Input
Amino acid sequence: MSNNQSLLARRKAAVPAGAASAYTIFAARAEGSQVWDADGKQYIDFAAGIAVMNVGHHHPKVTAAVTQQLGHYAHVAYPVQAYEPYIAVCERLNEAAPIADATSVLFTTGAEATENAVKIARIATGRPGIIAFTGSFHGRTNLALSLTGKVAPLRANYPHFQPGVFHVPFPVPAHGMSEEDSLKALDYLFKSSISPEQVAGIIIEPVQGEGGYYQAPVAFVRRLREICDQHGILLIADEIQSGFARTGRFFAIEHAEVEPDLIAVGKAIGGGLPLAGLIGKRSIMDTTQPGSLGGTYAGNPLSCAAALAVFDLIEEENLLQRSVSVGDKLKIELEKFAARNDVVPVGAIRGVGSMVAFEIFKDDGETPDPDATKALANRAVAEGLLVLPCGFWGNTIRIAPALTITDEDLEEGVARLARALLSDSVSK
Ligand code: PMP
Output
């Protein structure tokens, strides 16, 4: 029988170091917000497959939809012949997006969605430049990696970036970067490096994911929209982590009441099956040549069937509201930890909907402590809780549970986090 130890040995022998996992446990089964490893140990899942399983693991409606589709056909290739589930997903995306007269195209991974956003922005405007933000994450493929605004570990020994991509500081006042500073940096970029008339698009995560769950201030997003309008630049929202009810709105950019030109989606859309997409204004999307968008597996029928179930569940199970109430409960509990002096100090508590995070600092209360953060995440796993470290400084713990999490699992997860936080002060 496989167990964690034997699987770890096999992984080390068969898989390169670059394909790393945060933890050395191996999943065997998952249900709702609970995961069991190969040793039979149960975990409360506050990571949800990196904000993918918004409707929870093994949801009966998703499983039924995929099984039914499997009975019809698994793959026929959209480039050969289209099929209804693909069209239906695009219709639902067009309806959900805060974009007037939208059309959509499907892909398989988030990186493909961001790469194609850049491609379409360049085709539609005839311009080369793309502006992204520090702390951003847009994927691991070559262009997506060039957009990504964080060196370690992804760009560290791979400095082969695509030309035409520029980075501007993402406004995080706690990091000494105000909205005004960011806008000033953008202005400087327009003077020093690329004229705004040569910029095709500005790509932004309305709430940064891997960067540490920082929300772009509403006024900042609105100002970006004005700057884009002034210079004919397209505003691209990367909602791959923040979309699909994760922040209490279908898309996080809705908090700013701003209409982007393009929206990249991925992760939660497929309910665990690989699916991504790009929604955009018809006039922009239609500048592409027939056959230039897609891929062999893009918009796979099984993934589309799962996505249609996810759309239904967001409505049927009121996941927009649930996202807010779960996030509020988590923030209240984190504030209680922050007020205690017998646990690891929890700071910089923040969150939009169920995209919740906190940071771990050194004893001075302000120097980020990535080592202590990693140690805390490992202790959480030992206590039976899955959380994910992230952040520009590597000292953020993010909490992104399924939006369907039960009150009991939420409370049990918080109790296990408390034990993980406590055991550090005990061991100090
Ligand atoms: N954009 C964002 C905001 C993401 O969080 C991610 C994945 N973490 C990606 C793009 C890339 O998606 P994928 O891993 O599916 O290529």
In short: Residues 50, 109-111, 114, 137-139, 205, 209-210, 238, 240-241, 266 surround 4'-deoxy-4'-aminopyridoxal-5'-phosphate (CB under 6 Å). Residues 62-316 form a domain with the Aspartate Aminotransferase; domain 2 fold (CATH 3.40.640.10).
